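Handout, section B. The chain below has 645 residues.
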Amino acid sequence: MSWEVSSMPSKRSFFNRTLFRRNLSHSWPLWGLLSAAGAMVPLYILLELLNIPRRSLTFPPEEFASALYNAVTLFAPGFTAAYAILCAMLVWGYLYNSRSIGLFHALPVDRTCLFVTNTLSGLTMLLIPYAVTGFLGCLLAVCWGFFHLTAVLNTILAVIFLSVTFFGMATLCAMLTGNIFALPALYLLLNFLSPLLESLIFNIAQQFLVGINSEAFRFNVLSPIVQIYSRFTARYTRFTGEGDPTVSLHGLWVPALYALAGLGMLALAWFLYRKRHSERAGDVVAFRWLRPVFRYGTALLGGLTIGRLLYFFLWENLFQKGSYADILPFFVCTALGGLLGCYAASMLLEKSRRVFRGSLPSAAIVCAGAAVLCLLVSVDVFGAERRVPDMDEIKSVQLEDRGIVSGPFDPEEDPEQVEAVRAFHQALVKDRNYIRSYHPDWDHDAGKAFSHYVWLTYELTDGTKLTRQYDLWFTEDRVKTAGTYDNLLEVFYQDPEVRRCDVTIPENADISSIDVFSNYLEDEVYSINTNDRDPQDAKTLYTALQQDADEGSIPAKNVLVNHGSTRNTDTLLCFNVEYRLPIDPWEGSWSYGYKDIYVHPQMQNTVDALISLGYMTEEDAARWAEDYTRDHTSEPRMESAVIFG
Protein backbone atom coordinates (compact mmCIF):
# COMPACT_ATOMS: atom_id res chain seq x y z
CA MET A 1 0.00 0.00 0.00
CA SER A 2 1.32 3.36 -0.88
CA TRP A 3 0.37 6.74 0.61
CA GLU A 4 0.20 9.80 -1.56
CA VAL A 5 0.45 13.03 0.33
CA SER A 6 -0.57 16.23 -1.35
CA SER A 7 0.41 19.54 0.16
CA MET A 8 -0.56 23.12 -0.60
CA PRO A 9 1.87 25.97 0.01
CA SER A 10 0.84 28.13 2.96
CA LYS A 11 0.07 31.77 2.22
CA ARG A 12 1.59 34.34 4.56
CA SER A 13 -0.31 37.58 4.97
CA PHE A 14 1.38 40.89 5.76
CA PHE A 15 -1.85 42.85 6.11
CA ASN A 16 -5.09 42.19 7.98
CA ARG A 17 -8.06 44.17 6.70
CA THR A 18 -10.22 43.36 9.70
CA LEU A 19 -7.67 44.77 12.13
CA PHE A 20 -7.12 47.79 9.87
CA ARG A 21 -10.87 48.58 9.82
CA ARG A 22 -11.04 48.05 13.59
CA ASN A 23 -8.24 50.52 14.22
CA LEU A 24 -9.86 53.19 12.06
CA SER A 25 -13.36 52.63 13.46
CA HIS A 26 -12.16 52.79 17.08
CA SER A 27 -10.19 55.98 16.45
CA TRP A 28 -12.70 57.85 14.29
CA PRO A 29 -13.51 60.48 16.96
CA LEU A 30 -9.90 61.67 16.77
CA TRP A 31 -9.32 61.80 13.02
CA GLY A 32 -12.96 62.66 12.34
CA LEU A 33 -12.94 65.75 14.56
CA LEU A 34 -9.59 66.87 13.19
CA SER A 35 -10.89 66.42 9.63
CA ALA A 36 -13.96 68.47 10.46
CA ALA A 37 -11.78 71.19 11.97
CA GLY A 38 -9.55 71.18 8.88
CA ALA A 39 -12.58 71.44 6.59
CA MET A 40 -13.46 74.73 8.27
CA VAL A 41 -10.45 76.38 6.60
CA PRO A 42 -11.57 75.98 2.94
CA LEU A 43 -15.15 76.67 4.05
CA TYR A 44 -14.07 79.97 5.59
CA ILE A 45 -12.11 80.86 2.42
CA LEU A 46 -15.18 80.01 0.30
CA LEU A 47 -17.39 82.34 2.33
CA GLU A 48 -14.81 85.09 1.99
CA LEU A 49 -14.65 84.59 -1.77
CA LEU A 50 -18.44 84.69 -2.06
CA ASN A 51 -18.42 88.09 -0.38
CA ILE A 52 -16.02 89.53 -2.96
CA PRO A 53 -17.51 90.73 -6.27
CA ARG A 54 -16.33 88.50 -9.08
CA ARG A 55 -15.01 91.37 -11.18
CA SER A 56 -12.80 92.68 -8.36
CA LEU A 57 -11.45 89.28 -7.34
CA THR A 58 -7.69 88.98 -7.87
CA PHE A 59 -6.35 85.80 -6.36
CA PRO A 60 -3.44 84.49 -8.49
CA PRO A 61 -2.17 80.90 -8.19
CA GLU A 62 1.00 82.20 -6.50
CA GLU A 63 -1.11 83.32 -3.53
CA PHE A 64 -2.56 79.81 -3.25
CA ALA A 65 0.97 78.38 -3.43
CA SER A 66 2.10 80.81 -0.75
CA ALA A 67 -0.76 79.73 1.54
CA LEU A 68 0.09 76.04 1.04
CA TYR A 69 3.80 76.57 1.66
CA ASN A 70 3.21 78.63 4.77
CA ALA A 71 0.88 75.96 6.12
CA VAL A 72 3.25 73.08 5.40
CA THR A 73 6.34 74.84 6.81
CA LEU A 74 4.87 76.67 9.81
CA PHE A 75 1.90 74.54 10.92
CA ALA A 76 2.40 71.01 9.59
CA PRO A 77 5.68 70.02 11.39
CA GLY A 78 4.42 70.86 14.88
CA PHE A 79 0.92 69.48 14.27
CA THR A 80 2.24 66.24 12.76
CA ALA A 81 4.70 65.74 15.60
CA ALA A 82 1.93 66.11 18.20
CA TYR A 83 -0.67 64.12 16.26
CA ALA A 84 1.74 61.25 15.50
CA ILE A 85 2.21 60.34 19.16
CA LEU A 86 -1.58 60.22 19.64
CA CYS A 87 -1.93 57.86 16.66
CA ALA A 88 0.90 55.70 17.98
CA MET A 89 -0.73 55.49 21.41
CA LEU A 90 -3.97 54.34 19.77
CA VAL A 91 -2.56 51.62 17.53
CA TRP A 92 0.08 50.34 19.97
CA GLY A 93 -1.94 50.80 23.14
CA TYR A 94 -2.48 47.04 23.52
CA LEU A 95 1.24 46.56 24.23
CA TYR A 96 0.89 48.15 27.66
CA ASN A 97 -1.78 45.89 29.14
CA SER A 98 -1.06 42.23 29.82
CA ARG A 99 -4.60 41.10 28.97
CA SER A 100 -4.74 43.07 25.69
CA ILE A 101 -1.32 41.98 24.52
CA GLY A 102 -2.17 38.35 25.26
CA LEU A 103 -5.36 38.67 23.22
CA PHE A 104 -3.69 40.26 20.22
CA HIS A 105 -0.80 37.84 20.17
CA ALA A 106 -3.26 34.93 20.30
CA LEU A 107 -4.82 36.02 17.00
CA PRO A 108 -4.08 33.84 13.93
CA VAL A 109 -1.70 36.46 12.55
CA ASP A 110 2.00 36.76 13.19
CA ARG A 111 3.76 39.79 14.64
CA THR A 112 4.94 41.02 11.26
CA CYS A 113 1.35 41.21 10.04
CA LEU A 114 0.32 43.00 13.23
CA PHE A 115 3.16 45.48 12.85
CA VAL A 116 2.48 46.28 9.19
CA THR A 117 -1.27 46.61 9.73
CA ASN A 118 -0.91 48.84 12.78
CA THR A 119 1.72 50.98 11.07
CA LEU A 120 -0.48 51.53 8.01
CA SER A 121 -3.41 52.24 10.35
CA GLY A 122 -1.45 54.91 12.19
CA LEU A 123 -0.21 56.55 9.00
CA THR A 124 -3.73 56.53 7.58
CA MET A 125 -5.05 58.24 10.72
CA LEU A 126 -2.33 60.84 10.31
CA LEU A 127 -3.10 61.54 6.66
CA ILE A 128 -6.92 61.56 6.68
CA PRO A 129 -7.26 65.13 8.11
CA TYR A 130 -4.67 66.39 5.65
CA ALA A 131 -6.43 64.59 2.77
CA VAL A 132 -9.85 66.02 3.63
CA THR A 133 -8.56 69.57 4.08
CA GLY A 134 -6.34 69.38 1.00
CA PHE A 135 -9.06 67.92 -1.25
CA LEU A 136 -11.55 70.62 -0.32
CA GLY A 137 -8.91 73.32 -0.71
CA CYS A 138 -7.87 72.05 -4.15
CA LEU A 139 -11.51 71.75 -5.24
CA LEU A 140 -12.04 75.35 -4.24
CA ALA A 141 -8.88 76.44 -6.07
CA VAL A 142 -9.94 74.65 -9.27
CA CYS A 143 -13.42 76.17 -9.20
CA TRP A 144 -12.10 79.70 -8.65
CA GLY A 145 -9.15 79.41 -11.00
CA PHE A 146 -6.14 79.74 -8.72
CA PHE A 147 -5.01 76.10 -8.58
CA HIS A 148 -1.21 75.62 -8.49
CA LEU A 149 -0.20 72.06 -9.41
CA THR A 150 3.48 72.28 -8.40
CA ALA A 151 2.63 73.67 -4.97
CA VAL A 152 0.04 70.94 -4.40
CA LEU A 153 2.47 68.16 -5.33
CA ASN A 154 5.22 69.64 -3.13
CA THR A 155 2.80 69.97 -0.24
CA ILE A 156 1.63 66.36 -0.59
CA LEU A 157 5.23 65.13 -0.57
CA ALA A 158 6.08 67.26 2.46
CA VAL A 159 3.08 65.97 4.43
CA ILE A 160 3.95 62.35 3.61
CA PHE A 161 7.58 62.89 4.61
CA LEU A 162 6.60 64.52 7.91
CA SER A 163 4.09 61.78 8.71
CA VAL A 164 6.59 58.98 8.08
CA THR A 165 9.25 60.78 10.13
CA PHE A 166 7.26 61.41 13.27
CA PHE A 167 5.16 58.25 13.22
CA GLY A 168 8.36 56.22 12.75
CA MET A 169 9.88 57.93 15.78
CA ALA A 170 6.70 57.44 17.83
CA THR A 171 6.54 53.75 16.86
CA LEU A 172 10.16 53.19 17.87
CA CYS A 173 9.45 54.81 21.25
CA ALA A 174 6.38 52.57 21.60
CA MET A 175 8.57 49.47 21.22
CA LEU A 176 11.15 50.66 23.76
CA THR A 177 8.74 51.12 26.64
CA GLY A 178 5.99 49.05 28.19
CA ASN A 179 4.21 51.92 29.95
CA ILE A 180 1.62 54.06 28.20
CA PHE A 181 2.56 57.12 30.30
CA ALA A 182 6.26 56.72 29.55
CA LEU A 183 5.61 56.68 25.79
CA PRO A 184 4.82 60.42 25.29
CA ALA A 185 7.58 61.37 27.74
CA LEU A 186 10.13 59.29 25.82
CA TYR A 187 8.88 60.67 22.49
CA LEU A 188 9.16 64.27 23.72
CA LEU A 189 12.64 63.64 25.10
CA LEU A 190 13.82 62.00 21.87
CA ASN A 191 12.60 64.98 19.83
CA PHE A 192 14.38 67.55 21.98
CA LEU A 193 17.25 65.58 23.51
CA SER A 194 19.84 67.16 21.22
CA PRO A 195 19.08 70.86 21.93
CA LEU A 196 18.53 70.00 25.61
CA LEU A 197 21.96 68.39 25.96
CA GLU A 198 23.47 71.21 23.91
CA SER A 199 22.11 73.88 26.24
CA LEU A 200 23.13 71.94 29.37
CA ILE A 201 26.67 71.30 28.10
CA PHE A 202 26.92 74.94 27.04
CA ASN A 203 25.90 76.05 30.51
CA ILE A 204 28.50 73.86 32.20
CA ALA A 205 31.21 74.90 29.73
CA GLN A 206 30.50 78.54 30.53
CA GLN A 207 31.13 77.83 34.20
CA PHE A 208 34.77 76.89 33.51
CA LEU A 209 35.87 78.08 30.06
CA VAL A 210 36.51 81.62 28.86
CA GLY A 211 34.69 82.80 25.74
CA ILE A 212 32.63 79.67 25.06
CA ASN A 213 29.06 80.15 23.90
CA SER A 214 26.29 78.11 22.30
CA GLU A 215 27.81 78.35 18.81
CA ALA A 216 30.47 75.85 19.94
CA PHE A 217 27.90 73.02 20.06
CA ARG A 218 25.67 72.12 17.11
CA PHE A 219 23.88 68.76 17.24
CA ASN A 220 20.43 69.87 16.09
CA VAL A 221 20.58 67.41 13.21
CA LEU A 222 19.58 64.79 15.80
CA SER A 223 16.37 66.72 16.53
CA PRO A 224 14.00 66.43 13.54
CA ILE A 225 11.47 69.01 14.72
CA VAL A 226 14.16 71.65 15.36
CA GLN A 227 16.04 70.98 12.14
CA ILE A 228 12.90 70.94 9.99
CA TYR A 229 11.70 74.26 11.36
CA SER A 230 15.10 75.85 10.84
CA ARG A 231 15.77 74.60 7.28
CA PHE A 232 12.36 73.94 5.72
CA THR A 233 10.93 77.30 4.64
CA ALA A 234 8.94 79.15 1.99
CA ARG A 235 10.95 81.66 -0.02
CA TYR A 236 9.66 84.58 -2.01
CA THR A 237 10.96 86.51 -5.00
CA ARG A 238 9.47 89.94 -5.61
CA PHE A 239 9.89 91.74 -8.88
CA THR A 240 10.29 95.50 -9.06
CA GLY A 241 8.71 95.56 -12.51
CA GLU A 242 5.60 93.92 -13.84
CA GLY A 243 4.58 90.45 -12.83
CA ASP A 244 3.30 88.63 -9.78
CA PRO A 245 5.54 87.57 -6.91
CA THR A 246 6.75 83.99 -7.03
CA VAL A 247 7.17 81.59 -4.15
CA SER A 248 9.17 78.39 -3.81
CA LEU A 249 9.53 75.67 -1.20
CA HIS A 250 13.09 75.63 0.08
CA GLY A 251 14.56 72.64 1.91
CA LEU A 252 12.12 69.89 0.95
CA TRP A 253 15.11 67.56 1.04
CA VAL A 254 15.26 68.00 4.83
CA PRO A 255 11.93 66.25 5.61
CA ALA A 256 12.75 63.79 2.80
CA LEU A 257 15.97 62.74 4.55
CA TYR A 258 14.18 62.51 7.88
CA ALA A 259 11.51 60.39 6.21
CA LEU A 260 14.26 57.94 5.25
CA ALA A 261 15.35 57.98 8.89
CA GLY A 262 11.70 57.40 9.83
CA LEU A 263 11.62 54.31 7.61
CA GLY A 264 14.79 53.14 9.32
CA MET A 265 13.17 53.65 12.71
CA LEU A 266 10.13 51.67 11.56
CA ALA A 267 12.41 48.82 10.46
CA LEU A 268 14.18 48.88 13.82
CA ALA A 269 10.82 48.99 15.61
CA TRP A 270 9.66 45.92 13.63
CA PHE A 271 12.83 44.06 14.65
CA LEU A 272 12.32 45.01 18.32
CA TYR A 273 8.64 44.05 18.18
CA ARG A 274 9.55 40.54 17.08
CA LYS A 275 11.95 40.24 20.04
CA ARG A 276 9.71 41.94 22.60
CA HIS A 277 8.38 39.82 25.48
CA SER A 278 4.70 40.16 26.21
CA GLU A 279 5.47 40.00 29.95
CA ARG A 280 7.09 43.45 29.74
CA ALA A 281 3.68 45.15 29.59
CA GLY A 282 3.64 47.80 32.31
CA ASP A 283 7.44 48.13 32.58
CA VAL A 284 9.02 51.53 31.93
CA VAL A 285 11.68 49.83 29.79
CA ALA A 286 10.67 46.93 27.58
CA PHE A 287 14.12 45.37 27.13
CA ARG A 288 16.57 44.30 29.80
CA TRP A 289 19.61 45.51 27.85
CA LEU A 290 18.05 48.99 27.81
CA ARG A 291 17.77 49.23 31.61
CA PRO A 292 21.37 50.46 32.20
CA VAL A 293 20.93 53.03 29.42
CA PHE A 294 17.80 54.34 31.09
CA ARG A 295 19.37 54.33 34.56
CA TYR A 296 22.59 56.13 33.65
CA GLY A 297 20.95 58.36 31.06
CA THR A 298 18.59 59.62 33.76
CA ALA A 299 21.59 60.04 36.06
CA LEU A 300 23.32 62.15 33.40
CA LEU A 301 20.30 64.41 32.97
CA GLY A 302 19.94 64.62 36.74
CA GLY A 303 23.55 65.65 37.15
CA LEU A 304 23.30 68.30 34.43
CA THR A 305 20.00 69.76 35.69
CA ILE A 306 19.48 69.05 39.37
CA GLY A 307 23.22 69.25 40.04
CA ARG A 308 23.43 72.64 38.33
CA LEU A 309 20.52 73.95 40.42
CA LEU A 310 22.10 72.64 43.62
CA TYR A 311 25.35 74.42 42.79
CA PHE A 312 23.51 77.64 42.00
CA PHE A 313 21.54 77.72 45.27
CA LEU A 314 24.05 76.13 47.67
CA TRP A 315 27.36 77.56 46.47
CA GLU A 316 27.32 80.04 43.58
CA ASN A 317 25.09 82.59 45.28
CA LEU A 318 26.75 82.20 48.68
CA PHE A 319 30.43 81.36 48.34
CA GLN A 320 31.61 81.62 44.73
CA LYS A 321 33.93 84.52 43.95
CA GLY A 322 33.84 85.74 40.38
CA SER A 323 32.06 84.45 37.32
CA TYR A 324 33.67 81.00 37.06
CA ALA A 325 32.82 77.86 39.01
CA ASP A 326 34.84 76.19 41.76
CA ILE A 327 35.46 72.68 40.51
CA LEU A 328 35.22 70.71 43.78
CA PRO A 329 31.81 72.08 44.90
CA PHE A 330 30.59 71.81 41.32
CA PHE A 331 31.61 68.13 41.22
CA VAL A 332 29.86 67.42 44.54
CA CYS A 333 26.61 69.02 43.35
CA THR A 334 26.78 67.26 39.97
CA ALA A 335 27.34 63.91 41.68
CA LEU A 336 24.40 64.51 44.04
CA GLY A 337 22.14 65.39 41.11
CA GLY A 338 23.32 62.29 39.25
CA LEU A 339 22.62 60.06 42.26
CA LEU A 340 19.11 61.47 42.58
CA GLY A 341 18.47 60.73 38.91
CA CYS A 342 19.97 57.25 39.20
CA TYR A 343 17.86 56.24 42.20
CA ALA A 344 14.71 57.73 40.65
CA ALA A 345 15.31 55.63 37.53
CA SER A 346 15.93 52.52 39.65
CA MET A 347 12.62 53.03 41.47
CA LEU A 348 10.79 53.25 38.17
CA LEU A 349 12.53 50.16 36.83
CA GLU A 350 11.95 48.07 39.94
CA LYS A 351 8.51 49.55 40.73
CA SER A 352 9.66 49.87 44.31
CA ARG A 353 11.24 52.39 46.67
CA ARG A 354 13.59 49.74 48.07
CA VAL A 355 16.46 50.22 45.67
CA PHE A 356 19.31 51.28 47.97
CA ARG A 357 20.55 47.85 49.00
CA GLY A 358 23.27 46.70 46.60
CA SER A 359 23.33 50.03 44.78
CA LEU A 360 26.91 50.97 45.75
CA PRO A 361 28.43 49.97 42.36
CA SER A 362 25.89 52.12 40.50
CA ALA A 363 26.53 55.05 42.85
CA ALA A 364 30.28 54.69 42.29
CA ILE A 365 29.78 54.73 38.50
CA VAL A 366 27.67 57.88 38.75
CA CYS A 367 30.22 59.68 40.95
CA ALA A 368 33.06 58.63 38.63
CA GLY A 369 31.09 59.89 35.65
CA ALA A 370 30.51 63.26 37.38
CA ALA A 371 34.23 63.55 38.10
CA VAL A 372 35.18 62.74 34.51
CA LEU A 373 32.61 65.22 33.16
CA CYS A 374 33.83 68.07 35.37
CA LEU A 375 37.47 67.27 34.64
CA LEU A 376 37.01 67.09 30.86
CA VAL A 377 35.15 70.39 30.75
CA SER A 378 37.39 72.29 33.17
CA VAL A 379 40.67 71.37 31.43
CA ASP A 380 39.20 72.06 27.95
CA VAL A 381 40.21 68.64 26.65
CA PHE A 382 38.74 69.39 23.21
CA GLY A 383 40.52 72.74 22.87
CA ALA A 384 37.39 74.85 22.34
CA GLU A 385 38.64 77.61 24.63
CA ARG A 386 42.05 77.74 22.93
CA ARG A 387 40.88 77.68 19.31
CA VAL A 388 41.85 80.64 17.13
CA PRO A 389 41.15 80.12 13.39
CA ASP A 390 44.08 80.36 11.00
CA MET A 391 44.09 83.02 8.30
CA ASP A 392 43.35 80.49 5.55
CA GLU A 393 40.27 79.29 7.49
CA ILE A 394 38.70 82.75 7.78
CA LYS A 395 36.23 84.12 5.27
CA SER A 396 35.43 87.21 7.37
CA VAL A 397 35.62 88.36 10.98
CA GLN A 398 33.98 91.09 12.99
CA LEU A 399 34.44 92.40 16.53
CA GLU A 400 31.55 93.75 18.58
CA ASP A 401 32.39 95.68 21.73
CA ARG A 402 29.42 96.66 23.92
CA GLY A 403 27.10 96.74 20.93
CA ILE A 404 29.42 98.67 18.58
CA VAL A 405 30.57 96.57 15.61
CA SER A 406 33.93 96.79 13.84
CA GLY A 407 33.98 94.90 10.57
CA PRO A 408 33.35 92.48 9.05
CA PHE A 409 36.87 92.34 7.66
CA ASP A 410 37.89 90.17 4.73
CA PRO A 411 41.35 88.51 4.76
CA GLU A 412 41.91 89.45 1.11
CA GLU A 413 40.85 93.09 1.35
CA ASP A 414 41.69 93.78 5.02
CA PRO A 415 44.53 91.40 5.99
CA GLU A 416 45.98 93.79 8.61
CA GLN A 417 42.66 94.16 10.41
CA VAL A 418 41.98 90.41 10.35
CA GLU A 419 45.44 89.69 11.72
CA ALA A 420 44.90 92.33 14.43
CA VAL A 421 41.67 90.62 15.51
CA ARG A 422 43.45 87.26 15.56
CA ALA A 423 46.27 88.73 17.65
CA PHE A 424 43.71 90.11 20.09
CA HIS A 425 41.98 86.71 20.21
CA GLN A 426 45.30 84.93 20.81
CA ALA A 427 46.04 87.35 23.65
CA LEU A 428 42.67 86.49 25.18
CA VAL A 429 43.56 82.80 25.03
CA LYS A 430 46.97 83.48 26.55
CA ASP A 431 45.44 85.60 29.34
CA ARG A 432 42.50 83.26 30.02
CA ASN A 433 43.67 82.42 33.54
CA TYR A 434 43.95 86.14 34.31
CA ILE A 435 40.44 86.71 32.90
CA ARG A 436 39.09 83.99 35.16
CA SER A 437 40.83 85.28 38.26
CA TYR A 438 40.52 89.08 37.96
CA HIS A 439 37.92 90.78 40.13
CA PRO A 440 38.06 94.57 40.47
CA ASP A 441 38.69 95.97 43.90
CA TRP A 442 36.34 98.93 43.84
CA ASP A 443 38.11 100.61 46.76
CA HIS A 444 41.37 100.81 44.79
CA ASP A 445 40.31 100.38 41.14
CA ALA A 446 37.65 103.08 40.97
CA GLY A 447 38.15 104.94 37.70
CA LYS A 448 40.88 102.50 36.60
CA ALA A 449 38.92 99.34 35.74
CA PHE A 450 36.46 99.34 32.83
CA SER A 451 34.14 96.54 31.76
CA HIS A 452 33.82 95.37 28.14
CA TYR A 453 31.54 92.73 26.69
CA VAL A 454 33.24 91.60 23.48
CA TRP A 455 31.94 89.30 20.73
CA LEU A 456 34.18 87.80 18.05
CA THR A 457 32.38 86.32 15.04
CA TYR A 458 34.26 84.35 12.38
CA GLU A 459 32.70 83.28 9.08
CA LEU A 460 34.82 80.30 8.09
CA THR A 461 35.62 79.08 4.60
CA ASP A 462 33.87 75.75 5.23
CA GLY A 463 30.54 77.58 5.64
CA THR A 464 30.38 77.37 9.44
CA LYS A 465 30.44 80.17 11.98
CA LEU A 466 32.62 80.43 15.08
CA THR A 467 31.68 82.91 17.79
CA ARG A 468 33.29 83.74 21.10
CA GLN A 469 32.00 86.08 23.80
CA TYR A 470 34.10 87.60 26.58
CA ASP A 471 33.32 89.60 29.69
CA LEU A 472 36.57 91.54 30.11
CA TRP A 473 38.09 94.09 32.45
CA PHE A 474 40.56 96.71 31.21
CA THR A 475 42.99 98.59 33.46
CA GLU A 476 45.31 101.52 32.77
CA ASP A 477 48.46 99.54 33.57
CA ARG A 478 47.60 96.68 31.21
CA VAL A 479 46.58 99.04 28.41
CA LYS A 480 50.15 100.40 28.55
CA THR A 481 51.67 96.88 28.61
CA ALA A 482 52.44 95.58 25.13
CA GLY A 483 50.99 92.16 24.24
CA THR A 484 48.07 92.17 26.68
CA TYR A 485 44.56 91.99 25.29
CA ASP A 486 43.93 95.45 26.79
CA ASN A 487 46.82 96.88 24.80
CA LEU A 488 46.01 95.07 21.55
CA LEU A 489 42.39 96.20 21.51
CA GLU A 490 43.46 99.80 22.15
CA VAL A 491 45.93 99.51 19.25
CA PHE A 492 43.26 97.94 17.06
CA TYR A 493 40.98 100.91 17.58
CA GLN A 494 43.70 103.31 16.32
CA ASP A 495 43.62 101.75 12.85
CA PRO A 496 42.06 104.22 10.33
CA GLU A 497 40.04 101.44 8.72
CA VAL A 498 38.59 100.48 12.09
CA ARG A 499 37.75 104.13 12.76
CA ARG A 500 35.95 104.23 9.40
CA CYS A 501 33.85 101.22 10.47
CA ASP A 502 32.40 103.36 13.26
CA VAL A 503 30.59 105.56 10.72
CA THR A 504 30.08 103.17 7.79
CA ILE A 505 27.21 100.87 6.91
CA PRO A 506 27.67 97.84 4.60
CA GLU A 507 28.48 98.69 0.98
CA ASN A 508 25.32 97.11 -0.46
CA ALA A 509 23.01 98.69 2.14
CA ASP A 510 20.51 101.50 1.63
CA ILE A 511 19.83 104.06 4.36
CA SER A 512 16.24 103.94 5.60
CA SER A 513 16.48 106.71 8.18
CA ILE A 514 18.79 108.56 10.54
CA ASP A 515 17.63 109.64 13.99
CA VAL A 516 19.64 112.43 15.58
CA PHE A 517 19.71 112.87 19.35
CA SER A 518 21.16 115.74 21.34
CA ASN A 519 20.14 118.39 23.85
CA TYR A 520 21.81 120.96 21.59
CA LEU A 521 19.48 120.53 18.61
CA GLU A 522 16.75 122.94 17.57
CA ASP A 523 14.04 120.32 17.96
CA GLU A 524 12.28 120.66 21.29
CA VAL A 525 12.20 116.90 21.95
CA TYR A 526 15.86 116.56 20.95
CA SER A 527 15.09 113.87 18.40
CA ILE A 528 14.91 114.24 14.62
CA ASN A 529 13.86 111.46 12.30
CA THR A 530 15.10 112.45 8.86
CA ASN A 531 12.40 110.38 7.16
CA ASP A 532 9.88 112.92 8.45
CA ARG A 533 11.68 115.73 6.59
CA ASP A 534 13.54 115.91 3.30
CA PRO A 535 14.60 112.34 2.37
CA GLN A 536 17.80 113.79 0.97
CA ASP A 537 18.85 114.87 4.48
CA ALA A 538 19.83 111.31 5.43
CA LYS A 539 22.14 111.04 2.42
CA THR A 540 23.63 114.47 3.17
CA LEU A 541 24.43 113.54 6.76
CA TYR A 542 25.88 110.16 5.77
CA THR A 543 28.02 111.79 3.06
CA ALA A 544 29.38 114.21 5.64
CA LEU A 545 30.29 111.29 7.90
CA GLN A 546 32.21 109.67 5.05
CA GLN A 547 34.06 112.91 4.35
CA ASP A 548 35.16 113.03 7.97
CA ALA A 549 36.33 109.43 7.67
CA ASP A 550 38.32 110.25 4.53
CA GLU A 551 39.99 113.15 6.30
CA GLY A 552 40.86 111.03 9.36
CA SER A 553 38.62 113.07 11.66
CA ILE A 554 36.95 110.05 13.26
CA PRO A 555 38.46 109.64 16.74
CA ALA A 556 39.52 106.21 17.92
CA LYS A 557 37.50 104.52 20.64
CA ASN A 558 39.12 104.63 24.05
CA VAL A 559 39.00 101.28 25.85
CA LEU A 560 39.16 103.08 29.19
CA VAL A 561 35.93 104.95 28.49
CA ASN A 562 32.50 103.46 27.92
CA HIS A 563 31.73 103.83 24.22
CA GLY A 564 29.37 106.65 23.45
CA SER A 565 29.19 107.88 27.05
CA THR A 566 30.61 110.89 28.81
CA ARG A 567 30.80 112.02 32.40
CA ASN A 568 27.77 114.16 31.56
CA THR A 569 25.42 112.40 29.13
CA ASP A 570 23.79 115.75 28.27
CA THR A 571 26.75 116.46 25.96
CA LEU A 572 26.03 113.48 23.67
CA LEU A 573 25.37 113.99 19.96
CA CYS A 574 24.31 110.65 18.49
CA PHE A 575 23.07 109.31 15.15
CA ASN A 576 20.99 106.15 14.97
CA VAL A 577 21.24 104.92 11.38
CA GLU A 578 18.72 102.38 10.11
CA TYR A 579 19.63 100.61 6.88
CA ARG A 580 18.37 97.72 4.82
CA LEU A 581 20.25 94.91 3.08
CA PRO A 582 19.08 92.72 0.18
CA ILE A 583 18.84 89.06 1.18
CA ASP A 584 20.56 86.83 -1.36
CA PRO A 585 19.20 84.93 -3.23
CA TRP A 586 15.70 86.36 -2.59
CA GLU A 587 15.71 89.25 -4.99
CA GLY A 588 13.70 92.16 -3.63
CA SER A 589 13.47 91.02 0.01
CA TRP A 590 15.33 92.89 2.73
CA SER A 591 16.80 92.63 6.19
CA TYR A 592 17.28 95.65 8.42
CA GLY A 593 20.20 96.77 10.55
CA TYR A 594 20.97 99.62 12.93
CA LYS A 595 24.13 101.51 13.79
CA ASP A 596 24.80 104.05 16.54
CA ILE A 597 27.28 106.77 15.56
CA TYR A 598 28.60 109.22 18.15
CA VAL A 599 29.64 112.61 16.81
CA HIS A 600 32.74 114.40 18.14
CA PRO A 601 33.64 118.10 17.71
CA GLN A 602 36.53 117.28 15.35
CA MET A 603 34.04 115.77 12.87
CA GLN A 604 33.62 119.18 11.27
CA ASN A 605 31.91 118.06 8.06
CA THR A 606 29.16 116.32 10.04
CA VAL A 607 28.67 119.33 12.31
CA ASP A 608 28.52 121.66 9.30
CA ALA A 609 25.91 119.41 7.67
CA LEU A 610 23.74 119.55 10.79
CA ILE A 611 23.98 123.35 10.76
CA SER A 612 23.29 123.70 7.02
CA LEU A 613 20.23 121.44 7.26
CA GLY A 614 18.83 123.52 10.09
CA TYR A 615 19.04 120.94 12.83
CA MET A 616 21.57 122.93 14.83
CA THR A 617 22.61 126.56 15.06
CA GLU A 618 26.22 127.68 14.95
CA GLU A 619 25.88 129.01 18.50
CA ASP A 620 24.55 125.66 19.80
CA ALA A 621 27.29 123.80 17.91
CA ALA A 622 29.99 125.96 19.50
CA ARG A 623 28.44 125.54 22.94
CA TRP A 624 28.22 121.78 22.47
CA ALA A 625 31.86 121.54 21.32
CA GLU A 626 33.01 123.54 24.34
CA ASP A 627 30.99 121.46 26.80
CA TYR A 628 32.01 118.18 25.16
CA THR A 629 35.71 119.06 25.19
CA ARG A 630 35.55 120.08 28.82
CA ASP A 631 33.74 116.86 29.68
CA HIS A 632 36.49 114.72 28.09
CA THR A 633 39.58 116.63 29.15
CA SER A 634 40.50 114.32 32.04
CA GLU A 635 39.69 111.02 30.31
CA PRO A 636 42.64 108.56 30.24
CA ARG A 637 44.30 107.83 26.92
CA MET A 638 47.28 105.63 26.09
CA GLU A 639 49.42 107.84 23.87
CA SER A 640 51.84 105.08 22.90
CA ALA A 641 49.07 103.02 21.35
CA VAL A 642 48.85 105.13 18.21
CA ILE A 643 50.99 103.10 15.84
CA PHE A 644 48.87 103.28 12.66
CA GLY A 645 49.24 106.08 10.09
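Note. Residues 17-193+219-283 form one domain. Compare this with the example in section A.
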